[in-house]
């Protein structure tokens, strides 16, 4: 498996684990609507990330500028679906849905900034 595919899988796993942890915390606090919002937003966020990764792979193989515009609009449309659902259904918290949409972005932040610093610090301690 290539490094790119490994990175994709790691980021998706971290995003789903972060959203699962947040949903469990909200369930423990008896905030079911917030847990539903986190789950809904993170599922659509992961799907959007997968589509973006596929588009990136296709972009390197062939250059279609008109399709890139429709891909961008399609991604925004895809991310608007959970927001509309959260607005229409009172049983889903809108703020938690927005937080779930940022699950992949939080996983990327965690992976590249926080996780790598701890790994490099542990490696330096062992070398001494």
Structure description:
This protein is an all-alpha fold. It has one domain. It is built from five helices and no strands. The protein is flat and about 50 Å long. The two termini are 33 Å apart. The model has no long low-confidence stretch (mean pLDDT 84).
Q: Can you lay out the helices and strands and say which pair or pack?
A:
Blueprint: H1 3-28, H2 32-61, H3 65-88, H4 94-101, H5 103-127
Helix pairs in contact: 1-2, 1-5, 2-3, 2-4, 3-4
Please indicate the percent range of residues in DSSP E strands (runs of 2 or more). under 5%
Query: What's the number of domains?
Result: 1
The N- to C-terminal Cα distance equals 33 Å
The secondary structure category is mainly alpha
Low-pLDDT segments:
none
Q: Mean of the pLDDT scores? A: 84
Give the overall silhouette.
flat
* Rg over C-alpha atoms, rounded to the nearest angstrom: 17 Å
Helix content: over 70%
Give the tally of β-strands: 0
Q: From N to C, what is the helix and strand string? A: HHHHH
Helix count, DSSP H or I runs of 4 or more residues: 5
Q: Tell me about the biggest sheet? A: none
């Amino acid at each position: 498996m290539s490094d790119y595919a490994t990175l994709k899988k790691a980021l998706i796993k971290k995003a789903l684990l972060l959203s699962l942890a947040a949903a469990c915390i909200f369930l423990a606090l008896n905030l079911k609507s917030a847990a539903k919002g986190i789950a809904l937003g993170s599922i659509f966020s992961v799907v959007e990330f997968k589509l973006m990764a596929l588009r990136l792979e296709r972009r390197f193989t062939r250059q279609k500028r008109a399709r890139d515009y429709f891909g961008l609009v399609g991604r925004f449309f895809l991310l608007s679906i959970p927001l509309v659902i959260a607005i229409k259904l009172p049983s889903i918290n809108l703020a938690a849905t927005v937080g779930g949409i940022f699950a992949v972005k939080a996983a990327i932040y965690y992976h590249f900034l926080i996780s790598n610093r701890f790994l490099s610090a542990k490696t330096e301690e062992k070398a001494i």
